[in-house]
Amino acid sequence: MTDPPLRRILHCDMDCFYAAVHTRDDPSLEGKPVVVGGDPSGRGVVAAANYEARKYGIHSAMPAAQARRKCPKTIFLRPEFKLYREESQQIFAIYGEYTPLIQPLSLDEAFLDVSEHLAEFNSATEVAEDIRRRVREERRLTVSVGVAPNKLVAKIASDFRKPDGLTVVRPHEVEAFLAPLPVRRLYGIGPAAERSLHEMGITTVEELRGLSIDRLMARFGNWGRVLWERVRGIDDRPVHTHRERKSLSTERTFAENVKDLDEIDRILDTMADEVAKGLKKRHLAASTITVKVRYPDFTTPTRSHSLPVPTSDAATIGAAARELVRRTDAARQSVRLLGVGASNLVPGELGQRTLFDDSAH
Ligand SMILES: [Mg+2]
């Protein structure tokens, strides 16, 4: 058996990305609690809170109204995804100068494999330092970076000295680095697995390491084997550089033309569900929803709507589709084909819970 090649992985994670972009562009926000998200007087939620806001116990996914109660002087900003997307492209372009092996996890987070791409640098640590310097100087933003032999440890490491931190975990330091962490920090351990482990009296990675592979597999099945590896810092998952997908859509041609609007709505909901599943499977969210209809005379108009927040939520996509179909002649004319499409895709699953509950029904 040969050892797997030694990888040098960076996990780059922008600090409070959305709020940081706004604060850079409007220095009057400096030092103030800032929340990006929905309307605090409606049912919107917090998408991102800066560190000043977090001091008041404000965090993402919290209702914006609750955030305002926690700190009335919080400044609430509506998200501007176009701005974040453009900024993200600039930052990823910097990463791209160091390695072609980039796996984006969201607009502000990526794995970089620099194993074969150290070029003039002596170490992955130097690459990380250079990336941090360039993002600071060229984008006037800060990025926290974790450097490690694999993705599991790099991701935990980037969070270790946030904000504006660099944490390097060398191969021989991996076990000691993981040992004191709560089990929840291991990739793949959700609330259910955590509860199950707590029942076994296990709260830290070190305690978890004491369990045999047989015991873990008895409790968790095949996942137990993965867990056994993870607690030892073993993670051979490569950095995936998937080709960028531009859009995702589904359509249906009917044996008999459809004219009833309720039926059209039901069909659109089913298709929205398929599109949402496709997006989730690929860890993508869509900023634009399109509906296509074909009339008996074969004319095929489309209608599109840009969402304030990218989504992979079936209900949000369905609602948009139903609204769009009402801007066509469907139901006045019968239709022989319906289609629902999602485009302007971004990585991540923002908008699972829509920020605009008040406007998106
Ligand atoms: Mg981030």
What does this structure look like?
This protein is of the alpha+beta class and 361 residues long. Among the domains are: 17-81, MutS, DNA mismatch repair protein, domain I (3-Layer(aba) Sandwich); 179-230, 5' to 3' exonuclease, C-terminal subdomain (DNA polymerase, domain 1); 247-351, DNA polymerase, Y-family, little finger domain (Dna Ligase, domain 1). Helices cover 37% and strands 23% of the residues. The protein has 14 helices and twelve strands. It has helices at residues 17-25, 51-54, 64-70, 81-96, 124-139, 151-158, 174-178, 191-199, 205-209, 213-220, 222-230, 261-281, 314-325, 357-360, and strands spanning 9-14, 34-37, 46-49, 75-77, 102-106, 109-113, 143-148, 166-168, 247-258, 284-294, 302-311, 335-347. The strands form three sheets. The protein has a five-stranded mixed beta sheet with strand order 5-6-1-7-8. A hairpin with a 7-residue loop joins strand 10 and strand 11. Helix 4 crosses helix 5 (124-139) and helix 12 (261-281) runs antiparallel to helix 13. The longest helix is centred in the C-terminal third of the chain and has 21 residues, at 261-281.
